[in-house]
Amino acid sequence: MKSNKRKRGEIEAKRRKAEEWRRMQAQRAAEQRRLHEYRIALARGEVAVVTSALAPSNSYSTPDFVLRGTYRPEPFICKDCGVAEVWTPLQQKWWYETAKGDVFMKAVRCRACRTKERARKSAARRVHLEGLARKKPPVS
Ligand SMILES: [Zn+2]
Predict the structure, then answer these.
(1) Which residues have CB under 8 Å from 44's CB, separation 6+?
(2) Rounded to the nearest whole angstrom, what is the distance from the C-alpha of residue 123 to the centroid of ligand 1?
(3) Binning pLDDT at 50, 70 and 90, where does residue 140 land?
(4) What average pLDDT does range 54-58 have in this prediction?
């Protein structure tokens, strides 16, 4: 005959096993839901994220596109001229995976303003370097 203590132990073990099973089922369901959403997103024209190609980040948080696994069109308003533009999935993929851009940076300028900003920056750099060159003592 089993002791009460042993019976209680068996009941407790069964309860734990059932709990573990439920947790596993919930986990599997969540994974399947994610996979399902991922496939729908790809079918909608979103582009798969290759996490291994991303620049490493020191942040503890994870960007939305990494959690989701896809780049989706991101509408934004240009901070310089106020025009509405869409940052396309392929542009994002290029920025994050090829150019190794910061994973927490997003597009803020339209194409035209980006070109202008790039020209302004390179002009500023040239002026700065020319200034430095003037300060250097002449080489004799
Ligand atoms: Zn603009």
Answers:
(1) 72
(2) 19
(3) low
(4) 92
